[in-house]
Each structure stands twice: as C-alpha cells, then as structure tokens.
Design a protein that fits this description.
mainly beta; globular; 51% strand; Immunoglobulin-like; three-stranded mixed β-sheet
Length: 122
C-alpha cells in the first residue's frame, strides 16, 4: 500500500496545495522524497513508498519550490524531477492553490522531465 514511511517527519504541512505522484505506468515499486528547494540547503519534507501500478497524493503542502526524487526499487536507479513551484494566492473567493499531478515514467515523453541523480544527491 502506498503511504508515508514511519519514522520520517512530515514537514511543510501548513498549506493547501497538493501533488499527486502516479507510479501507475511502472512495474517497479519506488521510494520517493519530496525535497524542499526553498532555502539555501535542499532537504526532504516528505518520504513515502508507492508500489508498482499505484499512486500517492501529498496534501497540505506549504507554498515553495520542490522537486521529487525517487529510487526505482527494482533497478536501484535514482532520478529527480524538474523544479515544482507550489503557490497559494488569496482571492475574494478564497485561496487559489496548486494541484499538480506528476507521472513517473520509465519511457520517454512523460508529463515531467526526469534527471539522473547520484547517490549523494538522493
């Protein structure tokens, strides 16, 4: 079952934005980190597991800049997404917030460019 990993903190939980991470196109389980890029040093704010063929939704995200880093648990390969901008804007009707969907693909032409990572970047 997809979900947060026990023992790891859940940070940046005071927002309204969401990111759905879809591993439905893959036959491998993945270990995933949502990494904050909003300060001088990048750091993970959520760590979770998604089985092959499933997805997981991150909720209550604070606005900021993030990326998704993940390890394919079959091959061991490490990848990261491009930067993801999460914003919130107050309007007369309420709060307009980010609602992203990121699909993890092993094949080219997914909905997000992925980049290879070294172990020390993960």
């Amino acid at each position: 079952m997809a979900g947060y990993l026990p023992g790891f903190p859940r940070l940046n939980t005071d927002g309204n934005s969401t990111i759905a991470v879809d591993n439905g196109q893959n036959d491998s389980d993945v270990f995933v980190k949502l990494v904050s890029l909003s300060s001088a040093n990048a750091y993970p704010v959520r760590q979770f597991f998604i089985p092959a063929g499933r997805s997981f939704r991150l909720e209550s995200l604070r606005q900021g800049t993030y990326d998704i880093r993940y390890q394919d648990l079959s091959s061991g390969s490490l990848s990261r997404s491009a930067e993801l901008s999460v914003t919130e804007t107050r309007t007369y009707q309420g709060i307009r917030y980010t609602d992203l969907r990121l699909t993890l693909y092993k094949v080219r032409n997914g909905n997000m460019q992925m980049y290879t990572l070294s172990a020390d970047e993960f």
